Amino acid sequence: MADCRRAHVFVSGTVQGVYYRANTRDAARERGIGGWVKNLADGRVEAVFEGPADAVEEMVEWCHTGSPAAEVEDVEVEYTEPQDEDGFEIRY
Question: By residue range, what is the domain housing residue 27?
């Protein structure tokens, strides 16, 4: 994929226990993005989005709002080389 992008995202705020991971998974699958999402011990959510650049950017923007019950304080993004993620899953 020539226009493939990979974004490694850390989301902080009230993002655990508010269906943030499930909503992230659904939003990513709707856009055909590969990757994963998981909770971190420090209360943040970590995610990787990989796919067409415009779809990945949509997901990074989506993270600023997230699930309806979430209160996002910050979104950190780091772009790295794509690693052929296939499908999108919640990691535990």
Answer: 4-90
CATH of the domain at 46: 3.30.70.100
Q: Number of folded domains in the chain?
A: 1
User: Is the pTM here over 0.85, yes or no?
Assistant: yes
Q: What is the pLDDT of residues 18-52, one digit of tens each?
A: 999 999 999 999 999 999 999 999 999 999 999 99
Torsion of CA 69, 25, 76, 17, to 10 degrees: 40
Nearest to 35 by CA among 20, 47, 22, 23: 47
**Distance from C-alpha of 71 to C-alpha of 2, rounded to nearest angstrom:** 35
Cα 61-80-11 angle, rounded to 5 deg: 40
Catalytic residues: 21, 39
